[in-house]
């Protein structure tokens, strides 16, 4: 039975339309239709294809994940070798590179001066180099770089990556076009993958690059499909039956127009001053990018010049990679100490052989808790990879077991607190071990006071960590209330404390007495009660007396307060010594205005919601208004910062992303119950 022309046309139109929306969403990062609408179109296409299987084409958006897993990867020999890049490690290397370029191009005038060469600059993505071959606009092969001559055929896997078009857009592309670029795993996908690995008790990946490589090397494309990989194109190989442009930059823009993703950070600059400015700009931006980069690639922008410059062994003369300082280095665990925190948590800290990483010398790394030590399998004396990215505290990411000598020692949690000698207790089901000394423990007391004085709590200007330690060590301050009975003599009696600083501190203490209920509650350091919860409590109960009297049940009625938190709050106020200190603080003059309970408009302040899919009892606009009225923000896209996703019928990629990121999801019914809990 031949299928009617109308149906054939319908299938084709749907394919094209979906491919275009895919492009807007994954390549341009600018969705053109709501997810639910996309899902409806995809469903109509699926229905037609099920009814008329002869109309299924390999480039249909329904065909990204094929059938059975492969038995193995076949080899692909690259018609044009896939090159690598020379590296520069400092400005001098860059100046040398630029001089070599100018000399070869004979750019120097009679005075030896030369024009500033135009360079295209792009971040150097830390992923896996791949080649995509398009014939007549259809993706026919994907391959890894391998050794540059021979790679592996990973077509089935690259087909699952949404930012790779199965069919190019437009019709002015070359008949045969080989596009090259990097497949990488965005940081968010990496975090989600490792969180899941940990949950399942599997070994996590060391970094996004290894995770991307591991995900591409899967024989079952369904696994690759679940890993949220992305592709970014940075050059071409074979170009036959058509042309690109005169410059690297315009060529990449052409690729972009045909539906391929290119780096949004690309810029064209002049000479080494331009290159260094871009390098410094990106070095600052590095940690805020959603993907990992390990340097900047600079390429002579003019393609004729590139041809004239040519290649040397395995690298082009017209490009260079200026590397950033490494964020991972090898070092040795010399010892492990245990630190006691505000809540008594006993945290193992690795003392390391000092190593320069991420731009600073690092000699300590937190090991978090005993579970982390078990997961890493780390012992004292081990060679380890440590990682420091941006301002994040250094982490041990991996033990190099091959380097282990016989001379290693197990890490054991101390049975008694290293500060106060009280017993260390490990609660069943909790990863953290705690000192049982409470405020008897000097370490816990110091941390409690530091927290109380901190900027988001009582904001006591001039009372830094060192000063708190000195005041506790000298016996002048035993509890937070003791701060307000300090005399000038006591303070100026401390080492290195000038009269002026002593006066300033006393003035700050006086000023700090005027505070808000939320700050005061936060400053008490109740376990699990952060700044946001403290504000929620203040707004929900209005006064300290009400919070103190609140039962677990009434606390649970407050949005965002769960049973663990509720129990911590109740037991905090059950302990008489906590109430004594609160009374002493009030007696010393600490005060705040009560909060009007009818602060409905602020109940969801600072929270971002995303609404997706179709709601049946209200429109999305109505749902949005209700959220806005409670002070929430409503956003169109899901990110790590999203507080909750409200998913109606036929919710699509946003729901998936929320699930991948472990973000709370509510269905319409749940949302209605949630929203009505605010009706006062
Ligand atoms: S251009 C002939 N551009 O770095 C030029 N490479 O160390 C070929 N890489 O194998 C490479 N980002 O995997 C180029 N924007 C970028 C890149 C990039 C990452 C990788 C690529 C290459 C390796 C060389």
Taking all Cα atoms into account, the compactness measure Rg is 31 Å
The amount of helix comes to 25-40%
User: Sheet bearing the most strands, described?
Assistant: 7 strands, antiparallel
Tell me which CATH architecture of the largest domain applies here. Answer: 2-Layer Sandwich
Please give the number of β-strands.
Answer: 24
Bulk shape: globular
Number of helices: 24
Beta-strand residue fraction: 15-25%
What small-molecule ligands were found?
Answer: 2-(butylsulfanyl)adenosine
Question: Average pLDDT value?
Answer: 91
CATH class of the largest domain: Alpha Beta
The CATH topology of the largest domain corresponds to: D-amino Acid Aminotransferase, Chain A, domain 1
What is the straight-line distance between the termini? Answer: 65 Å
Indicate the low-confidence ranges by residue numbers: none
Q: Output the structural class.
A: alpha+beta
CATH H-level superfamily of the largest domain: DNA ligase/mRNA capping enzyme
Structural domain count? 5
